[in-house]
Amino acid sequence: MMNSFLQSLQDPHLVASFQRYCGLLLQVEERLAGGCSNSHGNASGSQGPVERGNVFKTSECTNGNRRYKTNGSHQYPYGQDKEDSRGMTGCAVKVGNTPTAKIVMYLGQASKDIIKWPRPLSPPVVKLETRVDAEYGMPSTHAMAATAISFTFLIATMYRYKYSVAFGLLASTVLSALVSLSRLYTGMHTVLDVICGVLITAVLMALTYPFWNILDNFQLTSPLTPIVAIVMPFFMSYTYPALDHYSPTRGDTTIILGVASGCTVGFWMNYQYGRTYEPTGSLPFEIPSITLEVVSLAIARFLIGILVLVATRQVVKTLSLKVLYAWFDIAGHDMEARKRLEIEVPYKFATYSSIGFNATVIVPLLYQLLELL
Description:
373 residues; alpha+beta; 4-stranded mixed beta sheet
């Protein structure tokens, strides 16, 4: 009975039904015989023009003598590379850098390549993303991240700021649910992938919650923090589970751990020099009203922070790749070399740990210098 129920939650037709409810329709048209498969060797039908409002995307693959066309009434923002879409600001950096968040993301990413359950087949599912189709699906790390960050943010702020806890709980639940449902809408995960992602995160948060303050205190005060924060994440990235084909999961995991490593070192350094940037007054703090001045400051901080982090990424990425290419005697124009373990992990770790460090140390100092705090 339970096995049958779990199999039903893995059924791609369940995902396709949800997509049809959201307005994504799959039409079958006759075409010359052909065939294709996804990155794991599973049969995968093609998608002709994919219509999402006024957005169109074309895929060349065919399956048998049929061509698949989708018509939808919803637009979905896609096409951003993960490396170019990682924003970090204020409290979100601190919350996203908690030990729980790092554990959740690493376990989620590594579990995919250990369990090796494929993503839902297309057809019947409409695939709105193609970049991560080479990855396995169980569990959904988007669902894990959304659950971990939203509820960690709630727990970390509910006693520090004056606001309705009921409203915060509702907002956290809605955010987690929307992200989870978006993974079904885009055809990237089965229902079971999403449910398991949420449940795994809930269990990990419950198990680690009693130790949050202890771990946070250790991160801020221990003289070993910089060493542990750099060596352990780099080792975890370098020993990431190997696959028989290239997948972006190792690189994405390195990015996550790199940012966390840089942020941890940054928070540690800030604490050593007394730059904690804590609000003044007694707990719980009042949430400032949204005024033109507050909005202007927020926009200015955002733009300056983004400029610094983009510049950091470009400079460190370029320099680290040049050093690694020279060390391993690789031609600079060999883009495929970036997928090699000895190139991908060091350059991405160096790049994104630098971003994490600058986001927590250099950017706040710049804000202070420009009187934006």
